[in-house]
Hints:
Layout: H1 3-9, E1 15-20, H2 24-27, H3 33-49, E2 53-59, H4 69-76, E3 98-102, H5 113-119, E4 124-130, H6 132-145, E5 149-158, H7 162-173, E6 177-179, H8 181-187
Parallel strand pairs: 1-2, 1-4, 2-3, 4-5, 5-6
Helix pairs in contact: 6-7
Amino acid sequence: MDEEIIREISKPEKTALVVWDVQNILVERIFNSDEFLTNLNRLIEAAHKKQIAVFFSKITPLPDRFESTARKLFFRKRAMRFTPEELELTIPPARDDIVVFKNTASIFIGTNFELMVHNAGITTLIFTGIATEFGIESSGRDSSNRGFFTVIAKDAVSSPNKDGHERSIQNMEGLLYLMTTAEILHMWNI
C-alpha cells in the first residue's frame, strides 16, 4: 500500500472503527468465533487507546407493518425473528462509543452515521463485524462510493457462511483496502 495512503488513513482524528452487528444471535453462528473475537477486541482496545471513534451498528428490525414487502419475503424464508437477548451486543460499547440503530445492510441508509462522521471530520472508515457478505461488503462499497477511505479488517470480519465470507473478501480485494488486524495495529503504531 502506498505510504501516502497509509499516512492519511492512520490519522486517529480522521478515523472511525465500525463494529458491524456483533450481536449474540450472529456471533454464536460464525465459523471462526475465537479468532474473530480476539482480533476484534484488539482493534477496539487499540482504537480506544488512540482515541479513534468507535461505532457499533445494531440490527433493529422495523415493526412488521412498516417493513418492506421484499425484506419480509426474504427474511420469512429464514425465520428471522429475534428475542431481545439475541439482539444484544456481544461486546459492550464503552462509554464514549456510539451505537447506530439500523434496519438495512448499509450503515448509511436510514441513520445519522454519515452526518456524524462528516461533522467530526472523519475521512477513513475501518469495518469489522458480521456478516462479511452482507453488511460489511454493502457498507464498505457504500462508504467508498461516498468518498471515504475504506478499510476492511479482513481477519476481524466473519459470517455464518464461510464460503460466502471468502467470496466477499475476494470481491472486495479489488475495490477496497483489506488489511489484517496486525497491519492496522502497526499502522497505528501499537
